Each structure stands twice: as structure tokens, then as C-alpha cells.
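Q: What would this complex look like in 3D?
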Amino acid sequence: MNPANYVLLSALLFSIGAIGVLVRRNAIIVFMSVELMLNAANLAFVAFARMNGNLDGQVVAFFVMVVAAAEVVVGLAIIVTIFRTRRSASIDEPNLLKY
Amino acid sequence: MSAFPWLTTLGVLPLLGSIVVALLPKSKPTLAKQVALAVSFIVLGGTVAMALQFDGSSTAPFQFVESYPWIPAFGISYSVGLDGIGLVLVALAATLVPIVILAGWRDIEGDQESEGSVKGYFALILALEALMIGVFSATDVFLFYVFFEVMLVPVYFMIGRYGGPQRSYAAIKFLLYSLLGGLFMLASLIGLYVVSARELGTGTFDFLSLVGLDMDPNTQKMLFLGFFFAFAIKAPLWPFHTWLPDAAAQSKPGTSVLLIGVLDKVGTFGMIRYCLPIFPAASEFYAPVVIGMALIGIFYGAYVALTASDMKRLFAYSSMSHFGFIALGIFVFTSAGQSGSVVYMVAHGLSTAALFLTAGFLMSRRRESALISDYGGVNKVAPVLAGFFLVAALSSLALPGLVSFVGEFLVLLGAFERFLWVGAVATLGIVITAAYVLRLYQKSMTGPVNPSVEGITDLKGREITALVPIAALTITLGFYPAPLLNVINPAVDWTMSTISAVDPDPVLSSEGGQQ
Amino acid sequence: MTEIIPAEGIFGLLWVLIALPAVGAVILLFGGRRTNSWGPYLGVLTVVGSAVLGVLMLLAMMDQPAEQRTVVQNVYDWVFVGSFQASFALQLDQLSMVFVLLITIVGALIHIYSLGYMSHDPDRRKFFGYLNLFVAAMLILVLANNYLLLYVGWEGVGLASYLLIGFWQQKPTAAAAAKKAFIINRVGDVGLSLAIMLIFVTFGSITFQDVFGQASEASEGTLTAIGLLLLLAAAGKSAQFPLQAWLLDAMEGPTPVSALIHAATMVTAGVYLIARSNAIYDAAAWAATAVVVVGLITIFMGAIIGSAKDDIKKSLAGSTMSQIGYMVFAAGLGPIGYVFAIFHLLTHGVFKAGLFLGAGSVMHGMNDNVNMRRYGALKGVMVITFITFMAGYLAIIGIPPFSGFWSKDEIIHAAFERNWVIGAAAILAAGITGFYMTRMIAMTFFGKKRWEDDAHPHESPAVMTIPLIILAIGSTFLGMALLFWGNIEEWLEPVVGYESVPTPLPTSFYIAVTLVVVIIGAIIGWVMYARKDVPVEAPRGNALTRAARQDLYGDAVNDVLVVEPTYRTAQALTTFDTKAVDGFVNWTATFVGDLARRLRRSQSGFARSYALSMVGGALIVALALILVRL
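A: Here is my prediction, written as C-alpha cells for the whole assembly.
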């Protein structure tokens, strides 16, 4: 199968993720969209590794997974804390950190 | 030449001293001062010992050379060494620091406004001394840049934490203005590295290798500007001077002495050490502009000083006028002008120190007022103070027989040799200088005793001890400047050879008599 | 060209001449209160020591043949850069010799006089310290063998003059007068500085020997420029037109200072400078003519001011201006005049010092009142002062055989050798001298008592009268001694040159005319001020008198032409500095601040809007990449 299709799929997933981040208000959904984008990137890395015939992309994909895992830990913790104090998971609500 | 690492030792000593002072408990301010004073005296002793070993007849451009690789990937090394110009400036710094510490003994705790602790001030002074020694002795351009920028940090805190009511305004203005200049210098520095990489194969920041570069004149013109802009702000030349009056007016006298007396010399030092040898073609190209700025500065500073109502601002503007003379001497490319400039740097350091310290002593007796109109008739109440003030004032107007005269006359002579009218016009500056200096003396020290200074005490032992060395040096070096000239002249000759400048011959010998 | 002999024997002590008073000054000024009791005596001793040494050197010099009297002592190398060399080197020749003697002997007498005059001043020690400083600097001035070292002495005497004019600093007028003197002298210094530079650029050396040896080779334009610049310097120091305004104010200083510095020695430094640089003026006719003109203008300005002032010291100061005008005038005449300029300088130094000290003695007895309208009939009360003053009076107006007669007569004669118009002018000025000096003695010693109620005139103590007597003897005999016994023309000829040109009429004719004019002037003065009562309040006077009381509007002219424009420029520049230069710097800061205040509005706090801008940014980057690729 043509590896370019994987790249196209990755682009599609990334776009879905990006739109999800932009349009949804629920923090959990936004968070999942971010994960979707990360995985789209991973897919692209692996596809490129296949296309180029070396392992660099796969190695980076592992890095991304580690980073994503770390991010999940921190991110979920923040979301849970905000939910506890505000009783809401909307990301438009906490807007105190501004000019 | 001894292999003893003089410069590193002299640089590290005050730095260690600074750390020790900073770590002392806050409850023992006197101990902090004593340690600081002791360290500064050790450094002074070391500097004197080193200066005695300096070989005036040596043909090597630098002595006491040390070099260790630092960031070899970019050709950066820790290289230090001194020529005559660097030596006298290091000596100036090492002389002024103990004096400033002694003079500022009680400046901090008496002041309710200062935020910082006593020990902090003295730790900063020592840190600054280490950096000053470093900046004058660096022979790696990158190392010089690092010292040049890091120096801002202690000064920023010395102004910003220990200054007058407007101190944060003054400190920020000083910092931003200097950083702006430093930024341009950084850009030029990187450019220089790129050029050296192209010319030599491997890039380097080594000063002597950069001097040998055969650089295209147009590149020189661009890179020169970056360096010159930084130095013109530091010195400061007209019109980049407005941070100076604010900084001077808001600082403690000791801070002002180190800032104007030594730190600002880095600007003029940089011009003669870096701008000229590395960019000879550009220096020649820009010389008319620089001379123009210098001339404007001489008169502009003097005129503004004539109407100043605040003593410290007056000193700042007068310094600006003097820096005009110094820059003028450097950019007329005659050995008289350049030697004169270096002598003038030392002389100006001494006279500024005397002026700021005496004024500081006076102000500490009159609730820190710097307004000239708050004084008058001080000569009657505190004759010793007035006497020192007079010596400082006369040194500022370059009275023959004082060291500043040697510098000023040589600068004017050098200018006159090269461009007759420039020298002639600059000479007119000595009249206005006399006018503002004597106006200050007349209004503050003579006349009927102003009720507000009645009953003030005269200078005491510690204060006299701080001022005597300055006055003694001013007079001694004025009558016997050979110790300065012996080391400065070879360095200036070397600089002149790098820019292939030759002194003009006298009219009679060059034209064989009858015109 | 006379040969230069290295200093040996007693001349090896040349530096001691300067060192003695210099050490005295250092001890007195830095020694503090410890030296209060014995300091003044030390000050006197050092100058007396220099005077003795000077006399010994004179004797040694007289043993040498005329062309071997120039001795040079190189003390050490002073300023040296490239080809520029200025040594601390002293040169003693016939010209500096007579100056050394004038400075040290008159200086010593005035020091002694000051012991009495200043005995009640709390700052007596400082006064003697400054006087010593002055003597040291003046000796450097006349002993220097190059122009730069001369400049050190030149400015040193200026400093001493500044300090001594402002000695009673708590008086605002004294402080202002001191500042004025220094600043006006500074204008002259510009001339000296530039002259030194031009000399170096032209000749490649600044020692007298090298410069004068090559003077004839330089172009006349250059020499004229140097000559005019030196004239500017001389005008500043010697209070010649147009830099004359400071001398009258300088009378704020204590009277011994006026005698030593502002009459006998320092103010004649300009004459010394011109006479010393004779080789330059001889080759620059225009510059020499300018010297004559400046001298002539000042002769009359000084004489007119001296005729109108009621303040005895200011009247004498006007007279000093006028007499120095004579010297400058004579120096401008060239080789026929240099010798007589110096001759008049010496006799004037003695008799004017005597007159000033006499005036001081009068003031001492009159509660420091200087207004001659409050004097009168003092001849019976102060006999010694009166007699010594009369000796000075007869000397200054030029009555034979008093010393001023010989020197002034020679100058007038030399003027006629050049041109009868300037000769006639010199005679007329001599007549005015006769008038104002007669006015002065008439108002002071003759007429009726016009004393203030609390004045109890008395003769001064011996420490003051003995110097007066010595100076009076000098005023009487010095002229004859120098002319007939000392052969002043022959003595100075190797240094300044001398030639005599025959005049159309016999010498005795000029002497007779001069004497007649002087006596007419004196009679007018006598009739106006001794035969008639002098009003205590000054009458309004005619326009010339009023102008002369205002120093011929010298200050007004300076104010309008120099002081006011300077201050206005300074004010304008200060405004420009705060508004434009610093204004721009602060505007930049404000601009950045404002911009930041606006831009931070975009930080709305909504996470999704940040995300949107991120996506937007990414799209732009991607688009840019694609576009560049295409």
C-alpha cells in the first residue's frame, strides 16, 4: 500500500483534532482532540520513517508518546483541579489569566 | 616577564572578596566594610606590584598574557593581557575602589531610603572591581563583550537599590540604554566572527588575529558602527548622553565615581583599543563624524553645565564635555592626541572622583541636597572641604600643573596638528569650562555663609584620608607625568601603527624652511 | 646667537629659586593650623632666601662675558609624546635675571610689609601660603625655557591671583571679582595655548632656543598669527585692551596683593612674554603694530579711568593699566623699544609697589576706607607714608632724577624714532599721568580734613614703613642706577636686541616737551583738587568722567557681547537637552509602553482564542513555505 495514504490519513486526523480543539468547550474533549493531533503526528512520523527507510521517525514517535503521556498526567491533573474548584469542565470559564 | 598569572589573580581576588562580603551576616555591617576595604587594598597592592613589573620598552603588544580555551568550537578563549593603556586604567580602577569604599563608609546606613543592605553595597563594589579589571585586560573580543555586559548588573543594583528618590527611573534608563548599545555590539561581534571565519578559515575572537584581518572597507564600515554605538553610549558622547545626568544625580557618590570615573572609560578605551585597530579604514571614514560629535559634546556639555542648578548633574554634563575631548584626541590619529586622551582618562577619573566625593561629603552634611543654591560660604565654615573642592574644580578645568592639563593640552595639540581649525575651536572650550567650574565654586563655597550650612562640621580624618591620595596624584602626575607617559606612549605607537597613521611633520622641516 | 651654557656652580641651584617658595606654599597650605604661629615667618624666609640666591646668581652672571650668560638647567623630562618634548627646564639669562630680582626682592619686601598689614587677619597663614605660591609660579614663568612650562607659571600666577583677589571670599564682590579675573585670563590663555600649538606645528619644538633660532625661516603669515595669539595672551594677563576689565575689580584683594601681583609683577608678565618672543615680533611687522595699537589704547583708557576714580586703589589700578600700556607699547616698537619696555617694567615695579603699599598704609590708618574724598590733609599725620608716596609720585609722573623719568623718557624717545604721531600720543598720556597722580596726592595728603567721624589716622608700624622706605629709595635711584651704572641696554641686548635710530630733533627737545606737558597736567590737577575744596560727595561730572567711573563701560560691553549671549545659549541648550534629546529618549520609552498596553489586549484569557491564533500562525507559516517553494 502506498505510504502516502498514511500521510493523508494523518493529515485528516490532525485536522479533526485541531477543529476539535477550536470548537469544543469541554476540557476533556479538547484534551482528547490534542491527543488525536499528537497521534496524527506519530502516524506521520512512522509513515515518513517507512518512506525514508530509516528508523529516525519511529524513534521520534516514541519520544512523542512519552511526552504525550507526561502531558496527560499534568493536563488531567489541572483539569481535575479546575473542576473541583469551579464545578465546570468548560475551558472558557477559567479566563482569569489575562492582561 | 614572570609567569605568575597576575591578571587572573587580580580579577579573582575581588570576586572572592565580594562573595565573602555577601555571605557575612547582615548584623555585622562594620565587618563587611572592613573585609571589603582589606580586599581592595590587597588588590591595589597587587596592581602596584604588577605595574612595577611592566616593561615599558617591550615591543610585544601585550604583557602578563594568559590564554586558556573557553569555547573552542567558536574560537573563544579566556585571554587576558595588558598594554600601557589597559595598565593605567586598571591602576585607576584599583586606586579608586579603596577610596570609594573608605569615602562611602557611612553612606548606606545613614540613608533611610535605600532598600539594600550595607554589606550588599560593598559586595557589589568589589564585584564591579573584578569586572573592571577584566574588561580592561581582556584580549579576546568575546570575553571583552561578556565583561562589558555583565558590568551592567552590579551598577544597575548600585543605582537601583542604593540611590535617591528617582533611582529606579535612573537605573532602568541606564540599563536599557547600555543594553541597546551592547546589542548592536553583539551583532557586530557576530559579524566579525563570520568575517574572520571567511578570511582565516576558522573563526576567532582573538584580538590580535582580528587586527590582522584584511577586511573589506564596506564590511568594516558596518561592523564599526555596532562597536562605536555601544562605546558612544557608554562614554557617553553627544547625543547619547541623557542617561548620565539621571544616573549621576540618583546614585551615591561612590557609585557615581566608579560609574563615571572608571566605567565610562570603557567606552573611550573601547574606541582606542577596538574600533581603531580592528577597523582602520572605517575609523578613517567616520573620523569626521566622530570629531563633529566630540566637538559638539565639548561645548554642549559645558554650556548646559553653566546653567545647571544641581551639582551632580553639573558634574555629569562636565564629564560629557570632557569625554568630548577624549574622543577628539582618539580620532585625530596623532600620537599626541591619543596619548593625551589616555592621560585625560586617568585625569578625569581622578577629578571626577574628587568632585563627587567632596560634593558627597558636603551633601551628607546638608540632608543630601544637591542644589547649588542651598549652599554658599562653605569656605568660611569648612575650609578643608572647600580646599579639596577647589583642587577638584581646578583639576576639572585642567589647570596647568595638574594632570588633566597634560591630557587636555596633548589632546588639543594632537587635534591642532591634524586639523588646525578643529584644534582651534576645541581650545575655546577651556573658557566655558572655567566659567562653569568657577561659577559652581563661587556660588557654593564663597560669599556670605548660607544659613543652612551654618554650623556644619569640616571634613574628618576618614574623609580626608580618602581625598588626600586623589589630590596628591592629581598634582604629582601633573608635574611628573612620566610614569603615565612611559607606558602609554608605546601602546599608542602600536595603535598608530595598526591604523598606519603618522604624525604630521612640522612645517619647517617638511618644506625645508622657507615656504 | 648666544651660546647655551649648562647650569653649573651656583647656577646648579636654579631649581632652588623656585623650590624655596614652593615648599613654603606647600607647608603653609597643607600644614593646617599647626603652622599658624610660625607660618608667616617661614613664608617671608623662603622668599628672602630666593632673593639672596638671586643676588648671588646676578654676581656670578656679571663675571661671565656677555655671550655666555644664558644658562639652562634641565630638571627632568616633563611631557613627551612622539616628537613633542617639553622638559621641566629652566633658563637663566639677562632677561630672566632682572625678573628674578624684581620678583624676589619686591616680593620679599611685600611679604615683610604683609606681616604688619595682615597681622589681625585670622587667615594670615593662608595668605602667606598663597603669596609663596605666587612667587614660585612667577619664577617658573620667567625661568621656563619653553612655552609650555611658561604656561604652567602663567596659569599658576593666575591661580594665585584668583585666590588672593578672592581672599576675603565672604564678600560677594571679592568672589565675583576673582572669578571674573580668572575667566578673562582664560580667554588670554586660549591665545597662549593656540600660540604654543602653532609654534610646535611650525617649528617642531617649543623651546625658546629652537623657536627663535628658526623664527626667520617661517612664513610671515604664521609669525603674524603667532604674534597676535601671544598678544591676546599678554592682553589677558596684563589687563590690556580688550581684556582689561578684570584689573579694576581685582582691587578687592588685600592691598599687598595689589602691590605685588596687580602692579609690580604678574600683570607685567604679558610684557615679558612679548619681549621674550622678540624674534617672532621682529619678523612679523603687523603683529608688532597691533601690539603698539593695543598698548596705546590702553595707555589712554587706564589714564582716563585713573583720573575719575575716587577709590585710591582703583585709581592706582587705572594707572597700572596705563603704565603697562606704555611697556606693551614700547615692546611693540621692536628692537628700539624692548629694552626700555623692560626698563620701565622694572622701575614701575618698584615705584608702583611703593605707591600701592603707601595707599595700603593710608588705608590702614583710615579704617580701610578707600575713598579719597574722605582723606585730605594726611601729610602731617603720616609723615613716612607721605614722603615715600611722594617719591613714588615723582617717579611715576617722570620728574628727573626719579626713576620713572628715565624709563618713560626713553620710551617716548623710542616712539619718536618710529613715528611722531605715536610719540606725541605718548607725551599727551604722560600729561594725563601728571594730572591724575597730582589729583591723588592732592586729595589724600593735602587740602582739608574730610575724615569720617570715627577715623583716627596714624602712622603704620615699622614693619610696614621700612619696606616703604626701601621702595622709595628704589623709586628715586633705580632708574639712574640701571641706566648709568647697570647699562641696561647693553645688559639686555644679547637677549632682546637693541638698536637706536636717530631722531630728527635732539633728545633734549623731547625731554623738555615731555616735562612741560607733565607739569601742565600736574598744575591742572593741583588747581582742581588742592586749591579748591574737594566735595565729599562726588559731583555728577561730565560724560567722560561718568564713563570713566564705569570703567569706560568695559563691563557693559562684555555683558552685552559675551556674558548675556553665553547665558542665553546655555539656557537654550538646557531646554533643548531636556525637551529634545532627553525628550526623544523618554518618548521612545513611552511609545514602547503605549504599544505594549495596546498589544496586551490580545491576551484575552480564552484558551481557545490562543489556540486559534496558533493555528492561524501555523497556517501562515505553512503557506509561506509553500509559496517560497513555488
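A: To summarize the key features: The beta strands of chain C are 4-6, 70-81, 84-92. Chain C has a mean pLDDT of 88.
Q: Very helpful, thank you.
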